[in-house]
Amino acid sequence: MKLIIDNSNLFAGGGLQVAASFLRDLKKSNLSDEFHVIQSVNCANIIGDEIFPDNFTFYNLNKTEENSKTKRIKSVKRIENAIAPDCIFTLFGPSYHKSRFPKLVGFAIPFIIYPDSPFFKLTSFKENLYYRILSVIKIYSFKKYSDALVFETENARRIFTERERFKKDSFTVGNTLNEIFLKPECWVDFESLPSSSCNILFLTANYPHKNMQILPELIEILRNKLKSKDFKFLITLQKEDLNFPEAINENIEYLGKVELEKIPSLYMHSDIVFIPTLLEVFSATYLEAMRMKKPIVASDLGFSRDICRDSAYFCEPTNAESYAVAIHSLMNNDHLRNNLVSKGTENLKRFGSSMDRTNKYLNIINKLIKNYENSK
């Protein structure tokens, strides 16, 4: 097999981690196939100077190609035509051009799947219009420039294929834990964390859909209405990122960006994991909390239900009191905490390892190649 892995449009976030994990799994597999990897600047940086076997060839795009969609498409098409692969796998799409070879495209854009998310009630008319226009463009591209789509959850696959009447092949391959969570010998302790309080981990990037702005009201309810004391939200942002009222900050520990090797330690020092996000297709944070045996407080939305099933305490997504009651209950009920942890441990078994994910990708790719050859 001659496979192009198109990572040219990966710039930030979890997609880069999945791309690196997929390539490392392929390397471990000792396959004889040819792998041609087209990389964005950030994708090349995350792989760095790692040594790969001779059957891997890397094509690193420059900043000019990355910043211009037209130039990027031209470069990718030139590489495709020179290699003439059996298949192209765009890890996360959409792809914006038609190829002469069968193309599998990954789907992980939540605002297309969940246009009724409560997130959009918190945004301006202009922002909502922007998302709607962007959705139209991306949906068109997914449908026109893909021969098959692969989704991270069955919930997302079902919604998209039914609503958009997508008749081509579609598959579901769930996300997995980062391998750092399977290697305790690589963990680095996070020092100077509060030890006497109930620590509530809020592992988040600074995006509006992560629902950080619910914290001030939530903290006020915990303190004044529910009379909770000695609790700290451990949040992976800087104080200036949020500019909360100073009175609120005594219940927040601002950690800033945390290195990957220290994240397991954060979970170890936490009692509850708080995931109030309003818009995802998949978040590995749910799986990390399950792996580290921590109870989850989550927004009650389709994607979180699909991933967690009955292993989280679900709350009304934009209701601060709903989250406060959940946290207060977990702080004061050992049986409830242990029950959620036990269910999470069992639920985690559904997701397998990164190598399981890689093998599923390869099976789909081989199926696509076979179907393409039979259709000639």
UniProtKB/TrEMBL annotation:
EC number: 2.4.-.-
Pfam families per record: Glycos_transf_1 (PF00534)
Domain Glycosyl transferase family: 200-345
Keyword Transferase: yes
Name this polypeptide is given: Glycosyltransferase
InterPro entries associated with the record: Glyco_trans_1 (IPR001296)
Organism: Chryseobacterium gilvum
Any one GO molecular function term: glycosyltransferase activity
UniProtKB keywords: Glycosyltransferase, Transferase
Entry superkingdom: Bacteria
